[in-house]
Amino acid sequence: MVVPWADPLIDHSGHEVRSQYVELFWLNILGPSATWALRRLVAGLDRYPLGYELDLDETANELGLSYSTSTSNTFVKALQRCVLFGVAQPVPDGLAVRRRLPTVSMRHLSRMPAGLQARHAQWTVRRASLPDLERGRALASVMLATGDEPEVVERQLLALGVSPEAAVLAASGTALTS
Q1: pTM over 0.90
Q2: Is the CB of residue 140 less than 8 Å from the CB of residue 171?
């Protein structure tokens, strides 16, 4: 069973699993297989918000990973990395999974390549101004109205030069606080 991991603090302030933030910074920590596995588990929670039964063999094969009952296969290792880095946790008969991830810790950030550390600093320092947020909201409202998913809207706003904070707020409809 895969169930949501409720954490009010991270659920409010964290980064959506399919966001550019997770792709840029958590990928370096989790690795590609664990990141894709986490995204797949969260996609299942989108369809079944209270939880669902996961076919381990089928899911592993869909991700291009091997699965067997031993602990040395690639899919089990990916799930173990999710637990190791706190994005999933064992629960009776299954796994609880975070839908949103926290900002990466300084411990992990210090182990990233210098270029990625610099990019993270830019990401976290650039704050949203009111005009930036208004621009982001105007663009986001059109994109959301045409059926784009919030994570797609966020990615597009970032590509258009909207600050990371404003892009996240605009795509989610959250108010600017300061």
Answers
A1: no
A2: yes
